[in-house]
Amino acid sequence: MDSFRDKLIPVTSILAGVVVLWYVFAVILNAPFQRDLDRRAGETPALSEFIGKTLSQPKPTLPAPHQVAVNFFENTFLRPVTSNRSLVYNAWVTLSSTLLGFAFGTGLGIIIAVGIVHVATLDRSLMPWIIASQTIPILAVAPMIIVVLAAIGITGLVPKAMISTYLSFFPVTVGMVKGLRSPEIMHLDLMHTYNASASQTFWKLRVPASVPFLFTSMKVAVAASLVGAIVGELPTGAVAGIGAKLLAGAYYSQSIDIWSTLVAGSVVAALLVMVVGIAGRIVDRAMGGRPA
Amino acid sequence: MNWLKPSWQAVLAIMLCLIALALGAMSKPEAAALADPAASFNYPFLGTKGLMLGLVLLAALISMTRIPPLAEAVVLFVGAHLVGWLLISGISGFEGTALAPYFLLLTAAWLLGWRCVAVLSGLRPMANWARSALRLIIPAIFGAWILIIWEAVTRGAGIPFILLPPPSAIGARIASSLPVLGADVRQTIFKAVIFGYVVGSGAGFITAILADRVPFLRRGLLPIGNMVSALPIIGVAPIMVMWFGFDWQSKAAVVIIMTFFPMLVNTVAGLAASGHMERDLMRTYASGYWQTLLKLRLPAAAPFIFNALKINSTLALIGAIVAEFFGTPVVGMGFRISTEVGRMNIDMVWAEIAVAALAGSVFYGVVALVERAVTFWHPSVRGG
């Protein structure tokens, strides 16, 4: 169990350190407010009691981990899934637009990449713009897309999915262009000696060679897609979704809610990346890839 | 037919022109004038319609004769852009009245532009300067055509202003509200982004060096850092706004958190990049840890570090702008975007986005230039 000793122990001990630090900071950050409360109530609690109080405020500056965990557990497992306070429901709302946008973005990215690899004009004219567009803060467009599409009567899933599409197709395009070009000259020459047509070379050499690149960039894309869906929910006062819940939490200073929503978002992100990774491994094995 | 070399773009452009000619009126006022010759004579493209059709046909035909590629590209360039300019300038005052031939002509001109780009990308000049000029010109023509089509379609079809303003209106808006844009840039970029970027990247770098000294820390931090990079960190924005208030400090905090992990992961990967041979050589020189670090491993890690700096330049802008959606003083790019969207001043939003795009590109460009200067020895820089 080398990987166990190499990875698990350091990771868990660092995570444990983070939790301890979190508790310490929770006490330090919540202390001023608690002291204020106690002074007004005329109480002088003992130190242990004081610390206990700082860790159980209803709207703490920094909620303690167990508060977040309890809130997360309540909102995930104890509420009916249809309730709009349920994290499962909100995560599903965000997840659905993430997945729709991710599917569109991956498809679009692959199509553009195929075009760029095969049409020299596109390679020379479009590729520089795609690279340049990665340097601009695209998320700034999100509110406008939502509001403008709402003005012409398109609301709900599609506008959010469009932002996700926009964010997720760049990594896929760049990765796929790299992947489709990854076969070596030797292999291309071999296809040449077989008298293979362009489409045969594409399907039998370029596509298989690009699959690992595709899944690597899809991992990046699915994470970006989730960020796009969350930010897409911010500006419109959306009623449901992880972004909407973050915004509501910010308005009403429900810090515990914000943290547990963040945890939910992270869980969704980790699951998505994991699913893409597993899919990649399955495809790799189905294609006869051997573990390196 | 030795003097003819047909291209599908030019042939299609000629066909579109002929269809446009057959369909007749290019705009509703012109159709009305044709129906009732006695009424008015004031309609768009009064004198330029024939000119535009002729230009497209002429350019398409010349491009198909056997002339040097450079001459062909120039003819196509002039023809396509002249027609585009005539179309856009002709429709002004008659927005929203364009009929099918208008769009057919636009498509024909665009096809010529495409042909021009295709000819240019086929060129293989020997001189270095010509090659780098081509590398700039080809994408520039592509970008120009996106703007031309955007402008011509929004004005020709009369797309409502709040849906999609034409680029000219956005440009005018930028010119007329420079002070506001300047204040926003100062608030968002010069205060929040730069401070957060420097502190976040610096902290990530120092942590990476620390992790390098302590292998236990590295084995623990690297998987965590890799995982965090997939998480929607942007969600900490409301928490930071609660902690640090509405002003730029909270945005800088978001930027610090967003830029920390890419820097950490990349620097740790970069510090492992130097080969065993080189490290053994340093050992035979009896150099200490810090000497090896400064003279061998950090230079070897430079490409990775600059990669992180480039990723961070975009992340920092996104972080600061999105954090402003959660609350700011009444200035800042994110604030302006969210309020002007609410007031349906879409042209102002586009102006702000254009400025953000420019700032992002400049930021990235500066990092890339510094990289070229610092890692001049690296194959990817020496190669081109």
UniProtKB/TrEMBL annotation, chain A:
A GO CC term assigned to this protein in UniProt: plasma membrane
Database matches in PROSITE patterns: ABC_TM1
Localization, UniProt: Cell membrane
Keyword Transmembrane helix among record annotations: yes
UniProt protein name: NitT/TauT family transport system permease protein
Transmembrane segments: 12-31, 87-116, 136-158, 220-242, 262-283
Main subcellular localisation: membrane
Family statement drawn from the similarity comment of this UniProt entry: Belongs to the binding-protein-dependent transport system permease family.
Organism, as annotated: Mesorhizobium sangaii
TrEMBL record, chain B:
Protein's UniProt keywords contain Membrane: yes
Annotated protein name in UniProt: NitT/TauT family transport system permease protein
Residue span, ABC transmembrane type-1 domain: 201-374
Membrane topology: Multi-pass membrane protein
Naturally occurring in which organism (per UniProt): Mesorhizobium sangaii
UniProt keyword list: Cell membrane, Membrane, Transmembrane, Transmembrane helix, Transport
A Gene Ontology biological process term: transmembrane transport
TM annotation in the entry: 45-62, 74-94, 100-121, 133-153, 189-211, 223-246, 252-273, 315-337, 349-370
Localization of this protein: Cell membrane
InterPro entries the record matches: MetI-like (IPR000515), MetI-like_sf (IPR035906)
GO cellular component labels: plasma membrane
Chief location of this protein within or outside the cell: membrane
